[in-house]
Protein: Glycosyltransferase
Amino acid sequence: MFERGYDIHIYASQRPPEQDYAPVDEMVSDRIEYTTIPKTKLKRLSHSRPHLSRIIATDPTKLTVLANSFRFGRDALSLHPIYKMSPMIGESFDIIHAHRGTTARIGAILKEAGVCDNLVSTFHGYGVRQAREDPQRYQHLFETGDHFMGVSKHICDELANLGVDKQKISRHFNGIIMSNFSFRWTDTVDSVPDPVKIITVGNLKPIKGHKYGIKALAKLHHNVDVDLEYHIVGGESNRETRDKLGSRKEQLSKQADELNIADKVIFHGHIPRQDVITKLDNSHIYVLTSIEEGLPTVLLEAQAVGLPVVTTDAGGAEDAVSESARIVPPRDVDRLYENLRSLIEIPEQWPEIGKKGRHFVENNFSTDALNDDLVEIYERVAAAE
Structure:
């Protein structure tokens, strides 16, 4: 957006761990403001004084909106609107673009407080799941927002089902920078590798379906005369301590032990993004076992590397894979097993399958093309003001 002549301000509620930093141009990094919002309500209240003072000193009338718990319920009581507004005091934006549903709800309150003329919201899987469970909490956003972007057709359909005006919905994919990914096949594969490395990337929440992947691997181990490794990359959740996986890892480890494949399932926990790419480079097959997804960026990354893919048709996953991918229903261990087995039996075809996947990503998920689409959405929203 900077390169296209836009004046951009970036507001983030927490600074990512050092290991998760991606290289950011200095011009962009100078526009990022971090406002740490404490996790607990008591700490949030005790640390809110400088933010309240700043708002009161500049425009105290805004507090009648930001702190209106009768209208905004828990979102106002959480004090998030006050923390978010604090660094924006004195600014006025043509558009606020809020990423993810929880942040977009706060964006709707900021719009009503006069911070922006238009609100654009990007929805992923978690946001629509939360809106389904608690539609009342999203009512103000759906009434106030000017445009809603879903990262897949599935998410767009969900937004429409939740009552969002279809004229305000656009599908806008996540993109990846292809130059960050090298094609992992340099030679033909004449025989089955020893071991065959199957990989999945995703936090250890049940919705990611790791237990079904472990069951499918156990079936492979007991029925296919091939040495296998199943690599699971991901931690307990984004909130976990970075060096501790927590109870879900213990549950999955116990499952693998009961299925007599404990030595075949390797848990890597949360690792830096570049290390994830290295793990993909060193693997042979990617499997996604999720029950529901928005649009899994890691499917794009796996195909950019050239891995053959087996995935569930979990929400937006189908939007993210080429025709060469194997697609199965969620929770279907037998179909996972059958498709993984059939791939393992044709290693000589892996490079060609990988080429099709990489070309698909190049043709559909180029960041340059997607950013051009984003400019069109911004211009259309601003013109309709």
User: Anything to note?
Assistant: The longest helix spans residues 367-383. Residues 218 and 260 are 8 Å apart (CA to CA). The first strand starts at residue 10 and ends at 12. The chain has two domains: 10-177+366-383, 179-364.
